[in-house]
């Protein structure tokens, strides 16, 4: 299978979504409830403690890709 990464202008997103739907390329994604609860818990924690969050622009250079 070939994968493409493209940028879609905001005003063309509805058209693009309809195109993908009509091509039958749309997939249903089932996320387990346990995973949803983990994410919701992390969101709630970040709301209670926003000072613990780090800005991506500040830390991105700390990551190295080999």
List the helices and strands and how they pair.
Elements: H1 13-23, H2 33-48, H3 56-59
Put the structure in a nutshell.
The chain contains three helices and no strands.
Terminus-to-terminus distance? 25 Å
Low-confidence stretches: none
The helix tally amounts to 3
Radius of gyration: 18 Å
Mean pLDDT: 88
Number of strands: 0
Which strand-content bin applies to the residues?
under 5%
Percent range of helical residues: 40-55%
Largest sheet: none
Shape: extended
Spell out the helices and strands N to C: HHH
Q: Structural class of the secondary elements?
A: mainly alpha
Q: Can you offer a commentary on this structure?
A:
There is one protein chain. With 66 residues, this protein is an all-alpha fold. It is built from 3 helices and no strands. The longest helix has 16 residues, at 33-48. It is extended, with a radius of gyration of 18 Å.
């Amino acid at each position: 299978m070939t994968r493409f990464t493209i940028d879609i202008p905001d005003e063309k997103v509805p058209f693009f979504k309809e195109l993908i739907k009509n091509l039958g390329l749309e997939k249903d994604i089932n996320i387990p409830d346990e995973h949803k609860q983990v994410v919701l818990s992390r969101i709630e924690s970040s709301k209670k403690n926003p000072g613990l969050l780090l800005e991506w622009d500040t830390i991105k250079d700390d990551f190295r890709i080999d």
